[in-house]
Fold:
Amino acid sequence: MKSKIFISLIALASLFAFSACGTDEPVPDSSKLLQESIYNVYNLKSFKYKADFKAEVTDPETKNKVNLDMILNGAVSGQDASKTGTEFTVVAKVDDNSENYRFDFSAKFFTEDIYLKLLALPEVPNFPIDGLKGLVGKWWKISAADLGEVGAVQKMEGIGVPYDKLDERGKKERDLILSSKFFDDIEYKSAENLEGLNVYKYTFVVDGNGVYKYVYELAKLDGQEKDAGLKEVKAMLTDAVVNGTIFVDVNSKTMVKMDLVLDAKKSKASQFNSMNLSVSLTDLNKPFNVETPTDFEVFDLGKFLGSFLGSGMTSDVSV
Structure:
Protein backbone atom coordinates (compact mmCIF):
# COMPACT_ATOMS: atom_id res chain seq x y z
CA MET A 1 0.00 0.00 0.00
CA LYS A 2 2.83 2.38 0.92
CA SER A 3 4.55 1.72 -2.38
CA LYS A 4 1.35 2.51 -4.30
CA ILE A 5 0.94 5.77 -2.37
CA PHE A 6 4.59 6.67 -3.06
CA ILE A 7 4.22 5.94 -6.78
CA SER A 8 1.01 7.97 -6.88
CA LEU A 9 2.73 10.94 -5.24
CA ILE A 10 5.63 10.70 -7.70
CA ALA A 11 3.19 10.61 -10.61
CA LEU A 12 1.27 13.59 -9.23
CA ALA A 13 4.49 15.56 -8.69
CA SER A 14 5.59 14.77 -12.24
CA LEU A 15 2.24 15.96 -13.57
CA PHE A 16 2.64 19.31 -11.78
CA ALA A 17 6.23 19.63 -12.97
CA PHE A 18 5.28 19.06 -16.61
CA SER A 19 2.32 21.40 -16.23
CA ALA A 20 4.53 24.14 -14.81
CA CYS A 21 6.98 23.79 -17.68
CA GLY A 22 4.32 23.56 -20.34
CA THR A 23 4.55 25.78 -23.43
CA ASP A 24 0.91 25.95 -24.44
CA GLU A 25 0.27 28.99 -26.61
CA PRO A 26 -1.22 31.78 -24.46
CA VAL A 27 -2.94 33.38 -27.50
CA PRO A 28 -4.50 31.87 -30.62
CA ASP A 29 -2.49 34.05 -33.05
CA SER A 30 1.10 34.63 -31.94
CA SER A 31 2.03 36.52 -35.13
CA LYS A 32 -0.74 39.03 -34.48
CA LEU A 33 0.34 39.40 -30.84
CA LEU A 34 3.94 40.18 -31.78
CA GLN A 35 2.92 42.77 -34.38
CA GLU A 36 0.61 44.36 -31.80
CA SER A 37 3.46 44.40 -29.29
CA ILE A 38 5.45 46.65 -31.65
CA TYR A 39 2.38 48.77 -32.43
CA ASN A 40 1.73 49.26 -28.72
CA VAL A 41 5.17 50.77 -28.15
CA TYR A 42 3.83 53.79 -30.04
CA ASN A 43 1.01 54.11 -27.50
CA LEU A 44 3.38 54.53 -24.56
CA LYS A 45 3.40 57.95 -22.95
CA SER A 46 6.76 57.44 -21.28
CA PHE A 47 9.50 54.83 -21.05
CA LYS A 48 13.24 54.41 -20.72
CA TYR A 49 15.25 52.30 -23.10
CA LYS A 50 18.65 50.78 -23.79
CA ALA A 51 20.04 49.42 -27.04
CA ASP A 52 23.30 47.53 -27.41
CA PHE A 53 24.51 46.89 -30.97
CA LYS A 54 27.61 44.94 -32.00
CA ALA A 55 28.55 43.81 -35.50
CA GLU A 56 31.42 42.77 -37.72
CA VAL A 57 31.10 43.92 -41.31
CA THR A 58 33.25 43.22 -44.35
CA ASP A 59 33.87 46.31 -46.46
CA PRO A 60 32.73 45.32 -49.99
CA GLU A 61 35.49 47.40 -51.60
CA THR A 62 38.55 46.86 -49.40
CA LYS A 63 37.42 43.49 -47.96
CA ASN A 64 38.62 44.74 -44.59
CA LYS A 65 36.66 43.65 -41.53
CA VAL A 66 35.12 46.48 -39.53
CA ASN A 67 33.88 46.06 -35.95
CA LEU A 68 30.99 48.24 -34.81
CA ASP A 69 30.00 48.75 -31.18
CA MET A 70 27.28 51.15 -30.03
CA ILE A 71 25.43 51.58 -26.75
CA LEU A 72 22.37 53.83 -26.61
CA ASN A 73 20.60 54.83 -23.39
CA GLY A 74 17.56 57.07 -23.50
CA ALA A 75 14.09 58.03 -22.35
CA VAL A 76 10.82 59.35 -23.75
CA SER A 77 8.46 61.38 -21.56
CA GLY A 78 4.98 62.55 -22.44
CA GLN A 79 2.80 62.07 -19.39
CA ASP A 80 2.73 65.85 -19.01
CA ALA A 81 1.75 67.23 -22.44
CA SER A 82 3.47 70.53 -21.62
CA LYS A 83 6.80 68.81 -20.95
CA THR A 84 7.13 66.21 -23.68
CA GLY A 85 10.69 65.33 -24.55
CA THR A 86 13.20 62.65 -25.45
CA GLU A 87 16.83 62.14 -24.55
CA PHE A 88 19.62 59.71 -25.26
CA THR A 89 23.33 59.16 -24.79
CA VAL A 90 25.39 57.42 -27.47
CA VAL A 91 28.75 55.72 -27.09
CA ALA A 92 29.82 54.54 -30.54
CA LYS A 93 33.07 52.84 -31.53
CA VAL A 94 34.36 51.62 -34.88
CA ASP A 95 37.50 49.53 -35.41
CA ASP A 96 38.60 48.61 -38.94
CA ASN A 97 41.80 46.87 -37.76
CA SER A 98 43.93 49.81 -38.89
CA GLU A 99 42.09 52.82 -37.47
CA ASN A 100 39.85 53.37 -34.45
CA TYR A 101 36.90 55.76 -34.33
CA ARG A 102 34.85 56.89 -31.35
CA PHE A 103 32.03 59.37 -30.90
CA ASP A 104 30.27 59.95 -27.57
CA PHE A 105 27.47 62.48 -27.15
CA SER A 106 24.19 63.22 -25.39
CA ALA A 107 21.08 64.84 -26.82
CA LYS A 108 17.76 66.14 -25.52
CA PHE A 109 14.84 66.93 -27.85
CA PHE A 110 11.88 69.13 -27.05
CA THR A 111 9.16 70.67 -29.22
CA GLU A 112 11.06 73.84 -30.07
CA ASP A 113 14.63 73.22 -28.98
CA ILE A 114 17.39 70.63 -29.10
CA TYR A 115 20.27 70.33 -26.64
CA LEU A 116 23.51 68.59 -27.56
CA LYS A 117 26.60 67.75 -25.56
CA LEU A 118 29.86 66.23 -26.77
CA LEU A 119 31.07 64.01 -23.94
CA ALA A 120 34.60 63.85 -25.34
CA LEU A 121 36.44 64.87 -28.46
CA PRO A 122 35.63 62.47 -31.31
CA GLU A 123 38.35 60.00 -32.19
CA VAL A 124 38.32 60.19 -35.97
CA PRO A 125 41.61 59.63 -37.85
CA ASN A 126 42.64 62.43 -40.21
CA PHE A 127 39.72 64.60 -39.08
CA PRO A 128 40.58 68.06 -37.76
CA ILE A 129 38.93 68.05 -34.34
CA ASP A 130 40.53 71.23 -33.01
CA GLY A 131 37.44 73.18 -34.06
CA LEU A 132 35.34 71.05 -31.71
CA LYS A 133 37.38 71.56 -28.55
CA GLY A 134 35.21 74.43 -27.36
CA LEU A 135 32.08 72.27 -27.54
CA VAL A 136 33.07 69.40 -25.26
CA GLY A 137 31.39 69.02 -21.88
CA LYS A 138 28.76 71.75 -22.37
CA TRP A 139 25.08 71.65 -23.21
CA TRP A 140 24.42 73.59 -26.41
CA LYS A 141 20.91 74.79 -27.28
CA ILE A 142 19.87 74.68 -30.94
CA SER A 143 16.52 75.69 -32.42
CA ALA A 144 14.83 72.66 -34.00
CA ALA A 145 13.76 74.92 -36.88
CA ASP A 146 17.42 75.53 -37.77
CA LEU A 147 17.90 71.83 -38.45
CA GLY A 148 14.87 71.35 -40.71
CA GLU A 149 13.91 67.69 -41.09
CA VAL A 150 16.71 66.59 -38.79
CA GLY A 151 15.12 68.65 -36.04
CA ALA A 152 11.92 66.66 -36.39
CA VAL A 153 13.65 63.69 -34.75
CA GLN A 154 12.39 64.90 -31.37
CA LYS A 155 8.90 63.72 -32.34
CA MET A 156 10.18 60.10 -32.27
CA GLU A 157 7.98 59.33 -35.28
CA GLY A 158 4.72 59.72 -33.37
CA ILE A 159 5.52 57.67 -30.27
CA GLY A 160 3.15 58.63 -27.48
CA VAL A 161 0.75 60.43 -29.82
CA PRO A 162 -2.82 59.02 -29.56
CA TYR A 163 -4.08 57.56 -32.82
CA ASP A 164 -6.93 60.06 -33.10
CA LYS A 165 -4.41 62.93 -32.81
CA LEU A 166 -2.35 61.75 -35.78
CA ASP A 167 -2.71 63.27 -39.23
CA GLU A 168 -3.76 60.99 -42.09
CA ARG A 169 -0.19 60.12 -42.98
CA GLY A 170 0.59 59.31 -39.35
CA LYS A 171 -2.43 57.01 -39.15
CA LYS A 172 -1.34 55.18 -42.28
CA GLU A 173 2.14 54.70 -40.80
CA ARG A 174 0.69 53.36 -37.56
CA ASP A 175 -1.78 51.05 -39.37
CA LEU A 176 1.03 49.72 -41.52
CA ILE A 177 2.65 48.09 -38.48
CA LEU A 178 -0.44 45.94 -37.86
CA SER A 179 -0.82 44.97 -41.51
CA SER A 180 2.85 44.01 -41.86
CA LYS A 181 4.67 40.81 -40.93
CA PHE A 182 8.01 41.11 -39.16
CA PHE A 183 8.22 37.65 -37.61
CA ASP A 184 8.40 34.10 -38.93
CA ASP A 185 8.90 30.63 -37.36
CA ILE A 186 7.43 31.94 -34.10
CA GLU A 187 7.69 29.63 -31.09
CA TYR A 188 6.25 30.32 -27.65
CA LYS A 189 8.74 29.45 -24.90
CA SER A 190 7.41 30.42 -21.48
CA ALA A 191 5.81 32.95 -19.17
CA GLU A 192 8.45 34.74 -17.10
CA ASN A 193 9.11 37.71 -14.85
CA LEU A 194 11.29 40.43 -16.38
CA GLU A 195 12.13 43.63 -14.51
CA GLY A 196 9.01 43.19 -12.38
CA LEU A 197 6.73 42.53 -15.37
CA ASN A 198 4.94 39.32 -16.27
CA VAL A 199 5.99 38.58 -19.84
CA TYR A 200 5.55 36.04 -22.61
CA LYS A 201 8.78 34.85 -24.19
CA TYR A 202 8.91 33.91 -27.87
CA THR A 203 11.64 33.00 -30.32
CA PHE A 204 11.37 33.83 -34.02
CA VAL A 205 13.20 34.43 -37.27
CA VAL A 206 13.04 37.93 -38.75
CA ASP A 207 10.84 37.88 -41.86
CA GLY A 208 13.20 39.81 -44.17
CA ASN A 209 10.67 40.03 -46.98
CA GLY A 210 8.00 41.24 -44.58
CA VAL A 211 10.25 43.92 -43.10
CA TYR A 212 11.26 45.07 -46.59
CA LYS A 213 7.61 45.35 -47.66
CA TYR A 214 7.04 47.53 -44.59
CA VAL A 215 10.01 49.76 -45.49
CA TYR A 216 8.80 49.94 -49.11
CA GLU A 217 5.29 50.95 -48.10
CA LEU A 218 6.73 53.65 -45.84
CA ALA A 219 8.75 54.93 -48.81
CA LYS A 220 5.59 54.99 -50.90
CA LEU A 221 3.93 57.29 -48.40
CA ASP A 222 6.74 59.78 -49.14
CA GLY A 223 6.68 59.14 -52.88
CA GLN A 224 10.14 57.51 -52.67
CA GLU A 225 9.29 53.97 -53.72
CA LYS A 226 11.73 54.29 -56.64
CA ASP A 227 14.63 55.37 -54.45
CA ALA A 228 17.79 53.55 -55.53
CA GLY A 229 18.73 52.88 -51.92
CA LEU A 230 15.74 50.54 -51.50
CA LYS A 231 17.53 47.92 -53.57
CA GLU A 232 20.38 47.83 -51.06
CA VAL A 233 17.92 47.69 -48.17
CA LYS A 234 16.14 44.75 -49.79
CA ALA A 235 19.39 42.86 -50.32
CA MET A 236 20.44 43.42 -46.72
CA LEU A 237 17.08 42.31 -45.28
CA THR A 238 16.45 39.32 -47.52
CA ASP A 239 20.00 37.94 -47.66
CA ALA A 240 20.49 37.86 -43.90
CA VAL A 241 18.94 35.28 -41.58
CA VAL A 242 18.38 36.82 -38.15
CA ASN A 243 17.12 34.87 -35.14
CA GLY A 244 15.38 36.66 -32.33
CA THR A 245 13.86 36.46 -28.89
CA ILE A 246 11.09 38.80 -27.83
CA PHE A 247 9.48 39.45 -24.46
CA VAL A 248 5.93 40.83 -24.42
CA ASP A 249 4.33 42.40 -21.35
CA VAL A 250 1.28 40.27 -20.53
CA ASN A 251 -0.88 43.17 -19.35
CA SER A 252 -0.22 45.85 -21.96
CA LYS A 253 0.75 43.48 -24.82
CA THR A 254 3.82 45.69 -25.40
CA MET A 255 7.26 44.57 -26.49
CA VAL A 256 9.64 45.20 -23.57
CA LYS A 257 12.75 43.40 -24.80
CA MET A 258 14.07 42.04 -28.07
CA ASP A 259 17.35 40.28 -28.85
CA LEU A 260 18.50 39.73 -32.44
CA VAL A 261 21.41 37.56 -33.58
CA LEU A 262 22.66 37.03 -37.13
CA ASP A 263 22.87 33.39 -38.27
CA ALA A 264 26.03 33.79 -40.37
CA LYS A 265 25.95 30.18 -41.61
CA LYS A 266 22.46 30.47 -43.10
CA SER A 267 22.82 34.03 -44.39
CA LYS A 268 23.55 34.48 -48.08
CA ALA A 269 25.69 37.22 -49.58
CA SER A 270 25.40 39.51 -46.56
CA GLN A 271 28.33 41.78 -45.75
CA PHE A 272 27.59 41.20 -42.04
CA ASN A 273 29.80 38.50 -40.55
CA SER A 274 28.17 38.81 -37.15
CA MET A 275 25.51 40.99 -35.57
CA ASN A 276 23.94 41.23 -32.13
CA LEU A 277 21.29 43.74 -31.12
CA SER A 278 19.54 43.92 -27.77
CA VAL A 279 16.80 46.47 -27.05
CA SER A 280 14.96 46.77 -23.74
CA LEU A 281 12.25 49.12 -22.45
CA THR A 282 11.64 49.89 -18.78
CA ASP A 283 9.53 52.27 -16.65
CA LEU A 284 6.58 51.95 -19.02
CA ASN A 285 4.18 54.88 -18.53
CA LYS A 286 5.90 55.88 -15.29
CA PRO A 287 5.50 59.57 -14.31
CA PHE A 288 8.83 61.21 -15.12
CA ASN A 289 9.98 64.04 -17.37
CA VAL A 290 13.01 64.57 -19.57
CA GLU A 291 14.42 67.67 -17.93
CA THR A 292 15.66 70.75 -19.79
CA PRO A 293 19.32 71.54 -18.99
CA THR A 294 19.63 74.53 -16.68
CA ASP A 295 23.25 75.23 -17.60
CA PHE A 296 23.63 75.69 -21.36
CA GLU A 297 24.86 78.05 -24.06
CA VAL A 298 23.02 79.02 -27.22
CA PHE A 299 24.64 77.49 -30.28
CA ASP A 300 24.86 79.67 -33.40
CA LEU A 301 24.99 77.06 -36.15
CA GLY A 302 25.73 79.55 -38.94
CA LYS A 303 28.55 81.19 -37.00
CA PHE A 304 30.02 77.82 -36.08
CA LEU A 305 30.03 76.52 -39.65
CA GLY A 306 31.51 79.77 -40.91
CA SER A 307 34.32 79.64 -38.37
CA PHE A 308 34.89 75.92 -38.76
CA LEU A 309 35.02 75.89 -42.55
CA GLY A 310 36.56 79.32 -43.02
CA SER A 311 39.53 78.43 -40.86
CA GLY A 312 40.36 75.36 -42.85
CA MET A 313 38.56 73.19 -40.31
CA THR A 314 41.49 73.38 -37.93
CA SER A 315 41.07 76.20 -35.44
CA ASP A 316 39.23 76.46 -32.16
CA VAL A 317 35.80 77.98 -32.33
CA SER A 318 34.05 80.08 -29.72
CA VAL A 319 30.29 80.21 -29.98
In short: Confidence is low (pLDDT under 50) at residues 1-22, 311-319. The chain has six helices and twelve strands. Residues 147 and 301 are 9 Å apart (CA to CA).
